[in-house]
Amino acid sequence: xxxxxxxxxxxxxxxxxxxxxxxxxxxxxxxxxxxxxxxxxxxxxxxxxxxxxxxxxxxxxxxxxxxxxxxxxxxxxxxxxxxxxxxxxxxxxxxxxxxxxxxxxxxxxxxxxxxxxxxxxxxxxxxxxxxxxxxxxxxxxxxxxxxxxxxxxxxxxxxxxxxxxxxxxxxxxxxxxxxxx
Length: 181
Fold this sequence. Notes:
- It is a single chain.
- Helix content is 51%, strand content 10%.
- Helix 1 crosses helix 6, helix 4 packs antiparallel against helix 5 and helix 5 packs antiparallel against helix 6.
- By secondary structure, the chain is mainly α.
- The termini are far apart.
- It contains eight helices and three strands, in the order ααααααβββαα.
- Strands 1-2-3 form a three-stranded antiparallel beta sheet.
């Protein structure tokens, strides 16, 4: 069942207040409407963190006051929670369509396939990189591909546990650790 049909079904059988209850996510899950883990997480966050409860009074009215609330909710979910904007828009469009606030059927975002993703090759874990270490007075000077980082002993031990990751990610860790000093 599509998400908008499942939301409509839940509202028709349980009333609109069901969208702000924790069981709502399970209801949609039972109807097999949560097509991706990301969509499930968005709806779970909307319910569990009270976002839908705050918007619900505006959705029950006949006016257009809900529009500002929906725009605010979309912004919060993207900015504060870090969800992808196209997924948040799709989920909110499903809600609006289900409660007859819009006549436009929601369009599910396309999920990129491996052939449509960026053509920039990712570094593999098996790629080798040059890591040089010099110890002096309990501190370590790490040289990774020509860039140097100064770490203390605990930071150096943490980096040793990460030595099998790609060099670009290891460089991010080294930079973060060296900034702590």
